[in-house]
Amino acid sequence: MYALRSNLIGFQASVRLVKRIDRSVSLVLLAFFSLLTLLSFFPIQFMTLADNLAGAMVAYTDVLPGQPRSAAAAHGFVCSSQTVSGPAQNFCTLYPEKGPFFEIYLHISSIDQSIQQISFIMRGNSFRVGDLELLSGLNYRTSHSHVIYYSWRNYFLAVMTDMVDNHRTYFHLISNITISETTSAKSGIGFLP
Q1: How far is CA 74 from CA 23, 40, 57, 90, 173, in A?
Q2: Which range among 68-77, 121-130, 144-153 has the greatest average pLDDT?
Q3: Phi-psi category of 31—alpha, beta or left, where left has phi over 0 and alpha has psi -120 to 50?
Q4: 65, 110, 147, 166: which could join 181 in a potential S-S bond, CB 3.0 to 4.6 Å?
Q5: What confidence category does residue 137 fall into, taking pLDDT thresholds of 50, 70 and 90?
Q6: Distance (Å, rounded) from C-alpha 25 to C-alpha 176?
Q7: Residue 15: helix, strand or coil by DSSP?
Q8: Is the dihedral of CA 151, 152, 156, 162 positive or negative?
Q9: 84 vs 157, residue with greater confidence
Q10: pTM exceeds 0.70 for this model
Q11: Alpha-carbon torsion, ordered 77, 117, 124, 52, to 10 deg
């Protein structure tokens, strides 16, 4: 009888120990999987934003610098001419109803009627520098004040941010992106300070 009682007490003690271990292991596993789930959300969200920026810019590859003015008309840009001093300056603008861009602005060459530069003005606080830097082939050049300069394919990019400093930070908000085909000290695009 004593042995049976001793076995019963031992069994009850081991059941309590297992229950205690099960609770602590369950809590640890729950915390681990909750953290893993939470951390997996951020890279997915970040990549989705970058894909949206890349996709939005890809939609306008036929109006990148070097393309003819007729490509702007096909997209629905409204073009006008302005004479200040010297030859007439040709500009085209588009105000997309949806998407990350509030305005897209083209500067057209008065000589050969080709697009010289394109500017994407962001809608609200859509994207950060880190979203842009995920684009394939983008090479950082330098930073000056609130502008970060890059080269991409055969183009030069000037990215205006919300911060005024000489350091590139992935979390700076982008206010606009200007793309130019060649360096030009006059336009300031592609010309590194």
Answers
A1: 65, 41, 16, 17, 31
A2: 68-77
A3: alpha
A4: 65
A5: confident
A6: 51
A7: helix
A8: negative
A9: 157
A10: no
A11: 90
